[in-house]
Amino acid sequence: MSTNQPHLDALPGLPRDAEGPVFEAPWQAHAFAMTLSLHERGVFTWSEWATALSEEIRSAQRAGDSDRGDTYYLHWLKALEALVSRKGVTSNVELARYERAWRNAAQRTVHGAPIVLSDVDLDQ
User: Fold this and answer.
1) pLDDT in tens, 102-113
2) Residues 31/73, Cβ–Cβ less than 8 Å
Protein backbone atom coordinates (compact mmCIF):
# COMPACT_ATOMS: atom_id res chain seq x y z
CA MET A 1 0.00 0.00 0.00
CA SER A 2 1.29 3.42 -0.94
CA THR A 3 2.05 5.92 1.81
CA ASN A 4 -0.13 8.36 -0.18
CA GLN A 5 -3.20 6.11 -0.01
CA PRO A 6 -5.11 8.08 2.67
CA HIS A 7 -4.62 11.25 0.64
CA LEU A 8 -5.75 9.52 -2.57
CA ASP A 9 -8.85 8.18 -0.84
CA ALA A 10 -10.00 11.79 -0.48
CA LEU A 11 -10.22 11.94 -4.30
CA PRO A 12 -12.57 9.11 -5.30
CA GLY A 13 -12.92 10.43 -8.87
CA LEU A 14 -9.18 10.27 -9.56
CA PRO A 15 -8.47 7.34 -11.89
CA ARG A 16 -5.94 4.90 -10.50
CA ASP A 17 -4.71 1.37 -10.65
CA ALA A 18 -3.04 -0.73 -7.96
CA GLU A 19 0.11 1.40 -8.23
CA GLY A 20 -1.57 4.80 -7.88
CA PRO A 21 -2.99 7.55 -10.09
CA VAL A 22 -3.12 7.02 -13.85
CA PHE A 23 -4.17 9.14 -16.80
CA GLU A 24 -7.79 8.59 -17.75
CA ALA A 25 -7.35 9.79 -21.33
CA PRO A 26 -4.44 10.40 -23.72
CA TRP A 27 -4.99 14.17 -23.75
CA GLN A 28 -4.22 14.24 -20.02
CA ALA A 29 -0.84 12.58 -20.58
CA HIS A 30 -0.17 15.05 -23.41
CA ALA A 31 -0.99 18.04 -21.21
CA PHE A 32 1.29 16.64 -18.50
CA ALA A 33 4.12 16.07 -21.01
CA MET A 34 3.73 19.56 -22.51
CA THR A 35 3.97 21.08 -19.05
CA LEU A 36 7.16 19.18 -18.25
CA SER A 37 8.67 20.04 -21.63
CA LEU A 38 7.92 23.76 -21.31
CA HIS A 39 9.35 23.78 -17.78
CA GLU A 40 12.51 21.98 -18.95
CA ARG A 41 12.91 24.56 -21.73
CA GLY A 42 12.81 27.36 -19.16
CA VAL A 43 9.45 28.83 -20.18
CA PHE A 44 8.40 28.86 -16.52
CA THR A 45 9.73 27.74 -13.17
CA TRP A 46 8.15 24.91 -11.23
CA SER A 47 7.11 27.43 -8.59
CA GLU A 48 5.29 29.48 -11.26
CA TRP A 49 3.59 26.31 -12.48
CA ALA A 50 2.51 25.29 -8.97
CA THR A 51 1.09 28.77 -8.38
CA ALA A 52 -0.82 28.75 -11.69
CA LEU A 53 -2.31 25.32 -11.03
CA SER A 54 -3.23 26.19 -7.44
CA GLU A 55 -4.91 29.41 -8.57
CA GLU A 56 -6.91 27.54 -11.22
CA ILE A 57 -8.07 24.89 -8.74
CA ARG A 58 -9.06 27.52 -6.17
CA SER A 59 -10.95 29.46 -8.82
CA ALA A 60 -12.81 26.32 -9.89
CA GLN A 61 -13.68 25.48 -6.29
CA ARG A 62 -15.07 28.99 -5.75
CA ALA A 63 -17.18 28.44 -8.88
CA GLY A 64 -18.60 25.21 -7.43
CA ASP A 65 -16.21 22.43 -8.52
CA SER A 66 -16.67 19.59 -6.04
CA ASP A 67 -12.95 18.72 -6.24
CA ARG A 68 -13.32 14.94 -6.35
CA GLY A 69 -10.34 14.56 -8.67
CA ASP A 70 -12.29 13.95 -11.86
CA THR A 71 -11.73 17.51 -13.10
CA TYR A 72 -8.06 17.79 -12.11
CA TYR A 73 -6.63 17.65 -15.64
CA LEU A 74 -9.19 20.15 -16.91
CA HIS A 75 -7.75 22.52 -14.30
CA TRP A 76 -4.24 21.45 -15.31
CA LEU A 77 -4.92 22.36 -18.95
CA LYS A 78 -6.56 25.70 -18.10
CA ALA A 79 -3.61 26.58 -15.86
CA LEU A 80 -1.14 25.68 -18.62
CA GLU A 81 -3.04 27.76 -21.17
CA ALA A 82 -3.14 30.74 -18.81
CA LEU A 83 0.55 30.46 -17.96
CA VAL A 84 1.81 30.22 -21.55
CA SER A 85 -0.43 33.13 -22.48
CA ARG A 86 0.92 35.23 -19.58
CA LYS A 87 4.47 34.31 -20.58
CA GLY A 88 3.84 35.43 -24.16
CA VAL A 89 4.42 31.96 -25.64
CA THR A 90 1.01 32.21 -27.27
CA SER A 91 -2.12 34.31 -26.98
CA ASN A 92 -5.66 33.58 -25.91
CA VAL A 93 -6.71 34.26 -29.51
CA GLU A 94 -4.29 31.63 -30.82
CA LEU A 95 -5.37 29.13 -28.16
CA ALA A 96 -9.01 29.66 -29.17
CA ARG A 97 -8.06 29.19 -32.83
CA TYR A 98 -6.49 25.81 -32.08
CA GLU A 99 -9.40 24.78 -29.88
CA ARG A 100 -11.81 25.46 -32.77
CA ALA A 101 -9.52 23.61 -35.18
CA TRP A 102 -9.36 20.52 -32.95
CA ARG A 103 -13.12 20.59 -32.47
CA ASN A 104 -13.62 20.74 -36.26
CA ALA A 105 -11.17 17.91 -36.84
CA ALA A 106 -12.80 15.80 -34.11
CA GLN A 107 -16.27 16.30 -35.60
CA ARG A 108 -15.25 14.92 -38.97
CA THR A 109 -13.23 12.02 -37.53
CA VAL A 110 -14.79 8.57 -37.37
CA HIS A 111 -15.08 7.30 -33.79
CA GLY A 112 -11.97 5.36 -32.82
CA ALA A 113 -9.76 6.87 -35.52
CA PRO A 114 -6.95 9.29 -34.64
CA ILE A 115 -7.82 12.95 -34.95
CA VAL A 116 -5.65 14.65 -37.55
CA LEU A 117 -5.42 18.43 -37.54
CA SER A 118 -4.98 20.02 -40.98
CA ASP A 119 -4.40 23.53 -42.30
CA VAL A 120 -8.06 23.59 -43.36
CA ASP A 121 -9.07 23.26 -39.71
CA LEU A 122 -6.87 26.19 -38.74
CA ASP A 123 -8.28 28.38 -41.51
CA GLN A 124 -11.89 28.07 -40.35
Assistant:
1) 899 989 899 989
2) yes
